[in-house]
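Just scan my protein:

. . .
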Amino acid sequence: MTVKEIMAPIEPEMKEFEVRFRRNMQSKVPLLDKVTHYIIRRKGKQMRPMFLFLIAKMLGEVNDKTYQAASLVELLHTASLVHDDVVDDANERRGFFSVNALWKNKIAVLVGDYMLSKVLLLSIENNNIRLLGIAARAVREMSEGELLQIEKARKLDITEEIYFEVIRQKTASLIATVCEAATVSVDREDLAAQMREFGELVGLAFQLKDDIFDYGTAQDIGKPTGLDIRERKMTLPLIYALNHGGQEVRKELINIVRNHNEDAAMVRRAVKLVVDAGGIQYASDKMYALKNKALALLENIPDSQSKRALCGLVEYTIEREK
């Protein structure tokens, strides 16, 4: 299913959301308006709002609370990206200069803080404490996940279990928040926990796809980025290779990640070791298992155009080429 086909059931809602989101980002401070305008113009595929509106439409009628939930989650997501770029000292985001690269760290942090304050105000102004609770949990989990990853990455001793806990908190918690918020917005509390689990599973699969990308796609074999290895990020393919590639492979990989992660030839060698050890295949198998588990949670929900598009969106998250 193409993105256009996935978008079809929610096209009017997405357009209306764009208008409302821009309005929610407005400020009386010219510098803040300039930065937020820059961010809005460079937004990605907007998969999170797509998940939110498809779930809301699948389970009920999109309403003001749904639009509030979408704005709230998108503000939260954008704030996390701005802060992440500061934490990672990243100069680019989706091929464009990051906020901190253009306006320095101080302004980037304050812009992220402003967006988080808008999350609080949106919830309070609309007297929606339930949505505020969902958003607050996401902030806590994303922060904990980032700190857990930093702590473990220094020692290169992340187990598979800890890895999944890191990505559950860092990445999957936000998708889970989207799905739960969508469900609550159409007054389907009876399905809130189920849809939160659905979002978490999709988020885990989404992150595994990103892990696999670092080793090259089917159309890009032999041209891996090796960026995660350069940044000493412990992803599932690398963890698997360290634990199942044998003593010599483990020793060589640890040496490259610790001491030669800036050497392009050595990084390519590390990528080859991971691929040969079966790390990519293992991560791919896990990704498909998570996807199937997520889709199984939708089986008890009546068929509709929105449900079919939602299933298509899940497939797209793991079949995408970038």
In short: The longest strand covers residues 92-93. Confidence is low (pLDDT under 50) at residues 217-223.
